[in-house]
Amino acid sequence: MVQEELQITNEAMKAIVKHTQVLDDFSEARKVLPNDPELETLTETLQLSQDALISNPDDLPSQVLGRTYNPTGLEQFHEDSKNSPSNYLIPNQKILTPPGGKVVHYLAGHKGDVTSIALSPDGQIAVTCAGDKSIKFWNVTDGKFVWSTDGVGDDPGTLHFCCSERHLVCLDSDQFWAFVVDLETKSFVHKVQPFLPFKTEDGDDNQHTIEAMAMTSDGQELIIANCYDNNLNVYDIKTMKKKHEWKGYEKDFSEKFRLTSKCKELYFPSRRGVVVWNLKDGSRSVILQHTVNVVDVVTADLHIVVTVGDDRVVRIWDTSCEQIEDSHKGQTDGPEENTKDTELILEKNESCQEKSCGTTSELIIQGKVDLECPSTTKIVRIFTSSTFTDSFHERNALMEKVYPNLKKVCQEEGYEFQVVDMRWGVRDEATDDHMTTELCLREVELCKKLSTGPCFVTFLSHKYGYRSFPRLIPEDEFKQLSDEIQSAETKEVIQKWFMRDDNSVPPTYVLQPISSLLPDFKSSNMDLQSLAKKAWDDDRTIMQDAIVSAAIQCLDKVRAHEYEMSECLGPEKKDKESRQLLSELKNALPERIPKNHLILYKIKWSKNGVDPEKRCQHKKYIHKLCVDFESSLLKMIKDGIKTRLQTDQADPLFEEIVQQTLFCQEKCKAFQGRLDSLEKISHYLVDEGRNPFVVYGESGCGKTSIMAMAAKRCWDEFGGNVVVIIRFIGTTPDSSTIGALLTSITLQIMKVYGQYADDMPENIRQLTDAFHNSLKQASKFRPLVILLDSLDQFDPSGGACQLGWLPQSLPPHVKIIVSTLPEDQYESLPILKALNIPDEYFLDIPKLPDNEVSGILDKWLETNGRKLTDFQRRKVMTAFQKCSLPLFLKLSFDQACRWTSYAPPDQTILQTTVRGSIDALLARIEQLHGKLFVSHALAYLTLSKSGLTESELEDILSCDDEVLDDVYTYWTPPMRRLPPYLLVRLKAELGQYLVDRGADGVRVFYWYHRQFIEAARDRYCFDKSETRKRHMDMAEFFSGTWSADYNNSKMAAINMDTFYVKVHFNFCTTMMIYWGYFSTITNIVTTFIMVLYLMFLKFNISNVTGKLKAYKDNKGNESEADRQVTLQPLKFGSTYNLRKLTNLPYHRLQARQTEELKTECLLSFDFIFAKLHAIGLRQVLDDFSEACKVYPNDPELKTLTETLQLSHNALISYPDELPSQVLGRIYNTKGLEQFLEDCKNSPSYYLLPNQKILTPSGGRLVHCLAEHEGGVKCIALSPDGQIAVTCSERHLVCLDSDQFWAFVVDLATKSFIHKVQPFPPFTTEDGDEDQYTIDAMVLTPDGKELIIANSSDNNLNVYDIKTMKKKHEWKGCEQDCSNKFRITSTCNELYFPSRREVVVWNLKDGSRSVILQHTVNVVDVVTTDLHIVVTVGDDRMLRIWDTSREEIEDSHKGQTDGSEENTKEDIQLK
Fold first, then answer.
1. Is residue 522 within a helix (H) or strand (E), and if so which, with residue range?
2. Which helix (H) or strand (E) segment is 798 a member of?
3. Which among 1189, 729, 1141, 704 is positioned nearest to 945, based on CA atoms?
4. CB-CB contact of 888 with 913 (8 Å)
5. How far apart are CA 977 and CA 1043, in angstroms?
């Protein structure tokens, strides 16, 4: 193990000596000039570059230029480096570690992979062992090579060791034995086997290996661990008795332990980090993050740390230094040829994210659901703020010219773009309930939380605006203000408008809605409305003056400011005050936000303010504002997206986990009671059962809230030593289908348990296997709990509702809890009850007990800062006696929460059913916001295929002239669009009864409760003609009927990569724009550049316009307007528009727009081609299937449907073959001429058959189903002939591997009921033993008779299963060769495949016939009545035949029905 002589003879050592001589020069110079910055910089640069320069000294320029970011004092050296006589690479990014950071040396010399490293007790000498059979010693201080010994051991790659002052501990190659070497005597002093062999449960011999070890400095104790439990076992070397044990951390993966010099800390490498355990208190921490996997690490005191990575580079770290920003971006720390910039950037950014909030992210992934989650929504959401009149033209110009461009850019990046402008299009009547300010602040916070990039823009001009006095005034404060006001008349006005609400906690005075005292404020009579407005303005002025004056006198300055209101126009005093406040605000801005976040425009103010219609200068100013605004926000958005990609938020898995966690938190907020149900779940979590647990109950009973609370309690019940995975099915794209769900859960399990998942399979069976295997990661010390809520919400595709993916017997330490509705129509509960799950594992959610209802009500009221009068409380409790569902209680509570203590009895009415409560809620919202607007908005939402985004619904409503005419009845906004605030207020009213969910890769909102869907359908979608209109409106939106043409608008977006003027602004989340007065522009160059820039952008901005939609205004005049709706191309750049592909055919069909359905979707080659690539053949066939139900006799739809069905085998894997399949199968082109012409102009290459080699549509063959990856061995059909399966209704007959025995299985009892041997063994003429095999068999539907045959005589032998007596025998046909018999449903015919035929035997008269001829060998065939026949050929394709049809002449000549590569006929390449 230890050599007698030390040799330094290899070429690597010679190179080290040469490089060391250069470093010696610098080392000696540093001793004389220790503070010289240039010498220090260059010394560290050469030390860091050692790995490259030892082998390639020509890399000197690359290393110097790539590492010295601050060349002060080294300018000439830099210049000389650039003029190097040798070729070199110049890094264009900061990809190499600079000097001055934590890494101070790179030591290279080993030819093989470094397998271990050790450090002398004084921390000065590092010892490394490698696969080149050498041990090398290095000076840590100056990085010099000291000495080496070569040829160590026969298997150096397995030599793991650690050093004390005198001793070296190493392992044998099997890692069962530890050897202690005395370095002075060069002899072994100990040989220990800490883990003894043992017997497994199967009786096999096994033994745990030593995976990690560390020896104390005195050589008396050895700390070792194995990979089974990762515990730290401390042994006395002499006696090998265990002294104590530290509980291991399962997530760590290491094979090398070390102790610091004082033996207080144990440290080791774990993946890309260095982990430290404090041996006194057992605490664990990570001190270093690598960009490569850490092979080994050594240190004396955790100050100077030496690591070696799997890139064979030794790094020396100084942990006292601060990490230099950006020093590791794209870093590889080794030769350039090993770098992968993109990958390494992600790695570094992930580690940076982990450093700042890694603990939170890690805990969220592990299932701790009570942590604050970061936003993962892909949205750019901007709140625009300004006073109303003096930014009128600016806001309109942005709405018309800029926002459509920004929206398009965001769409191409996969982001949604929203602008929240609460003042645009706002009528005075909107101030009736005084809620505008509260809603604005709520939206500002939402923008700050959700937006990627910019979130807030404000315009400051000549008005300060106003701050309305609070809508709510606490009782004690109101009393202070009242006492300060002396005027009895003023007090009377205040008391008229403010009423005390004792239901508020604490009691509060509430400003009454204007229309409650002045009903004409919302009158349709303009004269009466004007009088009401004047009366309100008069009273408001009286109250404002009095309250503001009183507040200044009796309240502190901060609180008094809340009551101040000031406008530019008005009395001189207010005008002066407003100008002062405006000036203070503008002066404060530079101190609050960066200077480059401010854009100042100076124009000459006119009498009418900004007037672009009459003043050319103002027109130019508006244009320049649009240009600056668009270019600045584009950069902010792109920077924001780039930044987001560098965090956990860009990880789709993390995004899914966060969305599920947020939903869980929402359901836990108001949870109260249900302790009995939660205790049953808790008991299940700790018992020894291995079955899933099932929660079920009727809609609205509270299942989801119980599941959410159970997930929250899991973490506490296991003390955090648990992994909790929860999915609320249907709330996100990755939880809606079984494939996406299994992928998501499996990836989360693998990530939490430290496993690296390869590419996940797409096949459901393989995904199920991967999911089941991942469950085995759970352990006793870290169990796994999975909660799946609402199995009934699954998309039925992939067999999700049949639960074949759900393990019936769970691995140890795994618990799965599912919930579902109980009705049979949802399938889940009946299937679960048939899985032999114990009854105690089923939890039927009972109705809420009366004693819990009172406690729940108290909890909810306390949370909302409310209470009820005794009369009101009795009313709620009485109503609950009539309907005990938690959903009803929640609806009733939401209504009661609005009750004030002074509300009259006729305003405190509750319904007695859930439906009644929902109807009352919707009626109240209609009364508040207008029946027509609410009914249309909620009808669109309800009729949508899977929900709508906010911007989609806003666009759709903006094209609905019925809604706009109602909104604009007495007033016309500057642009014919829906004012955004209307939708904001509507969503605020509906609150938690809407849920954000995923669809087509975006976040949409929809009704959460099924009962809301049913109520909305009955209320808003009962009229068929109106329903079709709503579908038509949505179809027009998704077709892009009223949007700009995407292809013609491509030049409209500003290309920041090809044209860039350095007046753009850095990324920020807030941008402030304000105006001053006119001044002369002196910078001619800047002006010239800006003029060119404006000219460049003028074309772009002015050409982004949508199609004009006709309408009639309030006076009956006809006009047209651009509604500024979202573009709807088939693709955004390289990304398919999934929303259009999914929704357009659905809404065209529901609207019964036959021609549009055909031309835009089903007979559009571009649409079908795009959807095949984006979503797949199944969804395309679904569109045709639904259309054929409505139009069963349409010849074009029928032909194309059958063509796609026959092309299943090719298109499922190769959508580019669409032209080949269509052109090769459609012989009758009537009505499909354009589709076929478009096929010929396909953007992809395709094979064009020049003969009829593919089965055409319209013949007997109607389906070709390709799903199996291996050869199909068997097929069966359900008794009703609708489903092709692999068994009968109750029984399954199978053979043993020798085909001597037949086994009959009862599927209901899951047991064998018969085992028969119909052909006994016999002796041949030669005296050999032989036996006929069962080559064909079939069981009659009643299970009493079995018909079998062997290949010797092909006779049909009919046996009685019970007695196995032969009842009769049909003489076989020698030409037949089959091993699969079937009987029709009437038991009158037996049929089977024979070579390329389907043969039928009449069991009454014994006649034989051939009903179908194949072009390939038939593997199997099934039918119920010989009418619809399903066959499978040896080309792995399923064919579905209709024998009632006539065979098409010549349709099978040369036919293969499969992919073109199987044809033998000539083909053309197009």
1. none
2. none
3. 1141
4. yes
5. 13
350 three-class SS? helix
Quickly count: other Cβ atoms within 10 Å of residue 486's Cβ. 9
Cβ-Cβ contacts under 8 Å for 48 (sequence gap 6 or more): 63, 67, 96, 97, 99, 103, 104, 105, 106, 333
Query: What stretch of H or E contains 732?
Result: none
E strand intervals along 1417-1466:
1418-1423, 1428-1433, 1438-1442
Residue type, 833: K
- 284-289 and 273-278 strand pairing: antiparallel
CA–CA separation, 381 and 407 (whole Å): 11
Q: Which sign, positive or negative, has the C-alpha torsion 1172, 1177, 1178, 1181?
A: positive
Phi, psi (degrees; rounded to nearest 5) at 548: -65, -45
Q: How far apart are CA 541 and CA 1063, in angstroms?
A: 46
Block mean pLDDT (10 aa), the chain, length 1470: 31 48 82 85 82 81 83 84 83 76 66 65 64 66 63 41 63 72 62 79 80 74 76 72 73 72 80 78 75 78 80 74 46 34 24 40 86 77 78 81 85 81 61 78 82 83 68 89 89 91 91 88 84 88 85 81 53 62 73 76 78 83 87 87 72 84 83 83 89 88 88 85 90 80 91 79 83 89 91 77 85 92 80 83 82 79 87 87 81 87 87 89 86 93 90 91 80 74 82 77 81 92 93 94 64 35 32 39 45 45 65 80 86 87 94 93 94 88 90 91 86 88 86 90 83 76 60 53 46 73 63 68 83 80 75 77 72 74 80 86 79 82 81 74 69 42 34
Q: Give the H/E segment covering residue 443.
A: helix 436-450
Describe the strand order of the beta sheet including 1408-1413 as a list of residue ranges.
1382-1383, 1389-1394, 1397-1402, 1408-1413
The answer, yes or no, to whether the previous bond of 506 is cis (omega within 30 of 0) is yes
- Decide if 1351 contacts 1377 (C-beta within 8 A): yes
Cα–Cα distance between 1283 and 891 in angstroms, integer? 44
Q: Where are the beta strands (DSSP E) in 1254-1333?
A: 1261-1265, 1276-1277, 1284-1285, 1291-1295, 1302-1306, 1311-1316, 1322-1323, 1329-1330
CA dist 836 and 1303 (Å) reads: 23
Contact between 442 and 544 under an 8 Å Cβ cutoff? The reply is: no
Rounded Cα–Cα distance for residues 1297 and 1301 (Å): 9
Tell me: the pLDDT tens digits for 452-484?
Answer: 888 888 887 776 666 666 788 899 989 988 888
C-alpha to C-alpha distances, 977 to 223, 425, 983, 1004, nearest whole angstrom: 73, 9, 12, 21
1311-1316 β-sheet, strand order: 1291-1295, 1302-1306, 1311-1316
771 in Cβ contact with 746 (< 8 Å): yes
Q: Any residues with CB less than 8 A from the CB of 1278 and at least 6 apart, and which?
A: 1284, 1285, 1289
**Four-residue CA torsion sign, 363, 368, 372, 375:** positive
* C-alpha span between 243 and 729 (Å, rounded): 51
Distances (CA, A) of 675 to 267, 818, 883, 1203: 45, 18, 21, 58
Task: Give residue 465's Cα distance to chain centre.
Answer: 42
CB-based contacts of 544: which residues, under 8 Å, 6+ apart?
A: 469, 565
Q: What is the pLDDT of residues 298-323, one digit of tens each?
A: 887 888 888 887 766 677 787 776 55
How far apart are the C-alpha atoms of 857 and 218, rounded to whole Å? 67
Cα 1123 to Cα 265: distance, rounded to the nearest angstrom: 68
Angle between helical axes of 914-929 and 1010-1020 (0-180°, round to 10): 60
